[in-house]
Specification:
Elements: E1 2-7, H1 11-22, E2 27-33, H2 36-45, E3 50-53, H3 62-72, E4 78-82, H4 86-95, E5 100-103, H5 108-119, H6 127-142, H7 152-162, H8 167-174, H9 178-191, H10 197-206
Parallel strand pairs: 1-2, 1-3, 3-4, 4-5
Helix pairs in contact: 2-3, 4-6, 7-9, 7-10, 8-9
Length: 211
């Protein structure tokens, strides 16, 4: 029996995941968490074979949680399940130690396949992610893209800006104050040597960081 810890701040998503797993003979939900803090506490207690982790959580970014768990619970495989398409966060998640990345729009059968594969000690790489990883490797061999030097929060700021979110909307999504988001935005522009928001949005579009 594969025991899965489901981490998502939306009750309906957790309920849906639980239904899928309960309908699968060799899987069960061993715990549910709606924040990163809860996820860390439950992971430390043990009793789980795998974690399904969302990236967008109310208290902390899922990638940050992933990095911490790789240090504290290195034997717990983590499958990222996110609303964000693969070309936004998948490569960063894999680099941070995720065992796989799946979009929430994926079919239930794909989720079951991914869980079984990750639980067996393997990586789950979709065809879209495989292509993205190959493209990313090619870029690395030539010249590292500017956005790769950003912190996770700075990168999130860039993506949200490019998606047309206002400062207040970004602050709400990131669970931060508008002032703190402004600091991340300023750091992002400085690191990437961009003059203004328009250049940042243009960069994100040219590098396919948004849909």
């Amino acid at each position: 029996m594969i025991r899965v810890l489901v981490v998502d701040d939306h009750a309906l998503i957790r309920k849906g995941m639980k239904q899928i797993l309960e309908d699968t003979r060799d899987m069960q939900v061993s715990g549910e968490a709606e924040t990163g803090t809860q996820a860390l506490k439950m992971a430390r207690k043990g009793g789980h074979d795998l974690m399904l982790l969302d990236i967008t959580l109310p208290d902390r970014n899922g990638i940050d949680i992933l990095k911490q768990l790789r240090v504290e619970c290195p034997n717990l495989p983590i499958l990222i399940l996110s609303m964000h398409p693969e070309d936004q966060y998948a490569v960063r998640a894999i680099r941070a130690g995720a065992a796989g990345y799946l979009n929430k729009q994926s079919a239930p059968s794909q989720l079951v396949t991914a869980i079984r594969q990750v639980a067996s000690g393997k990586k789950y790489i979709s065809s879209i992610l495989a292509e993205q990883l190959a493209n990313d490797l090619a870029k690395d061999q030539q010249q590292e893209a500017s956005h790769h030097i950003l912190s996770n929060r700075e990168y999130q700021t860039l993506c949200l800006m490019a998606a047309g979110k206002s400062l207040s909307e970004m602050a709400d999504i990131m669970s931060l104050s508008a002032k703190t988001v402004s600091v991340y935005r300023a750091r992002m522009l400085e690191k990437m040597k961009l003059k203004n928001n328009a250049e940042a949005v243009r960069y994100a579009i040219n590098n396919h960081l948004i849909e």
